Amino acid sequence: MTLSILGTGYGADVTTSVAAALAEAEVVIGHPVFVAEVKDLINPAADCFDVLDRLAEGEDVFAARTRIAAEHSAAGAAVVLLSGGDPGLLGMAGPALHHLHRAGLERELETARVLPGLSAWQYASAALGAPFNSGLGVLSLCLYTHTEEKVRRQVEGLAASGLGLVAYMLRHNGEQLPELFPTPEPAAELARRRFLLLRDALLAHRPADTPLFLLTGLGRGSAGSSRTAALADALELWEAAGEESVLCVPGADHEQGTGRVWTMT
Predict the structure, then answer these.
(1) 87 and 13, same structural domain?
(2) 3-state DSSP assignment of residue 226
(3) Residue 229 is part of which domain span?
(4) Most buried pick, 61, 131, 171, 226, via CB within 10 A?
(5) What ranges in 82-141 are assigned the alpha helix state H?
(6) C-alpha 69: how far from chain center
(7) Over the range 104-124, which residues count as b (16 or more CB within 10 Å of their CB) and which as e?
(8) Which domain-ending residue is among 115, 146, 179?
């Protein structure tokens, strides 16, 4: 009986420990996109599913995944909770551990394995050169559990720090799934407003011609895309962003040349 919370990376760039856990899994729970990316690595006899049709009234999807994973684990199954990228960075690990603790499942909390995966910022860094070599801050603009105050505090702190920055979730899940992720205002307007908050905070500390990069489809080879714009024109990048896009801002001490951007240690 095991419960493993693991990251698939992107494009199935998985670690050996993740591949082994998938090969041994009897139950795999996660978003269909993540399951599809590692389908060839999963035990053919495993039961693979997500939980959107199994939510209890008022239950969020992360709580439901954790609850159902714990039930299968308690019944003796080797269970995997899938997360894209790395499970410990805006992934399933935090929510799963939180819900295990809240449910009083201390044994499951103690024995759950968290197995790392490559994160989007690592793919982005490699694609651009080494823009975060002198340090990095990562934040989510539209994670539905984050309050306005929390987003503002993170944005302003990172903008003032001069660190390289990667912003995830430039668009809000409520734009596509309003029934699961309700917002007090239209989700697209919320996402745009938070992006402008980030742009304006950066403009208070960085030159207007600072290069910004929008990367979409990381880890998917020719299916991926990259766009760039000056900080003053950042809104055009947000308008082109999709649910898989990340925004990259190199460190304040960055250098550029021949299509590459980097910072020194």
Answers:
(1) yes
(2) strand
(3) 120-262
(4) 131
(5) 93-102, 106-111, 120-128
(6) 21
(7) ebeebbeebebbbbbbbbbbb
(8) 115
Give every CB contact of residue 218 below 8 A, 6+ residues apart in sequence. 10, 11, 120, 123, 124, 127, 224, 244, 246
Q: Hey, what's the torsion of the CAs at 213, 215, 132, 7, to 10 degrees?
A: 160
Contact 230, 211 (CB under 8 A): yes
Token pair listed for 26: 């009897």
Distance CA 235, CA 232 (A): 8
Residue 1 confidence (pLDDT) above 60: no
Total of domains in the chain: 2
Side-chain-facing half-sphere of 161: CA atoms under 13 Å: 18
Please tell me whether residues 23 and 111 are part of one structural domain.
yes
Give yes or no: residues 84 and 139 share one domain. no
- If asked whether residues 13 and 37 sit together in one domain, one would say yes
- The residue out of 64, 90, 115 marking a domain boundary is 115
Do 166 and 224 lie in one domain? The reply is yes
Distances (CA, A) of 166 to 109, 152, 174, 208: 30, 15, 21, 18
Q: Which two tokens stand for residue 30?
A: 């996660």
Residue 97 confidence (pLDDT):
96
Tell me, yes or no, whether 253 and 129 share the same domain.
yes
| Residue 146 pLDDT > 70 | yes
pTM here is 0.89
Question: Which CATH number fits the domain that encloses residue 60?
Answer: 3.40.1010.10
Q: pLDDT tens across 153-201, in order?
A: 999 999 999 999 999 999 998 998 888 788 999 999 999 999 999 999 9
